[in-house]
């Protein structure tokens, strides 16, 4: 299974000629994924700690436009899915990072190591997919927060619709850019 290529290992100036590529760049990218996922996971925990039915949290809509229990259930559901996705992504990224560092250490006196390029790409791709799904689920949870706090979107409330439009346009746009960049890096 070791169809690994010789890659520059943890060098401050990685080489990228021929079959060489910089694993320090990959380690930095994996660290970035873990750091961003950590921030999003914190947001998920804050969202799960919030009780939408709290009577002291005034200003909740009432009547026909109130979101109801179903929106609260979806809120928790999407938060849990986002947490699972971010955790999956972080664990895969950390595993790939550890594999780069410890499974294939460079020979003594060398700064090059044999890295299975397919496994490296697969791990980075799996981690990126987990992050994208986590962002999607977090976006859906935020839509439910808007419905709980400002009323159902079907009621046509300007505040609810105005709050959701940036969510459903900017987040998918950012995920498309992220996916395009990961795909570009994956094919190089």
TrEMBL record:
Keywords: Membrane, Transmembrane, Transmembrane helix. The chain crosses the membrane at residues 76-97, 118-143, 163-186. The keyword Transmembrane applies. This is Uncharacterized protein LOC103715495.
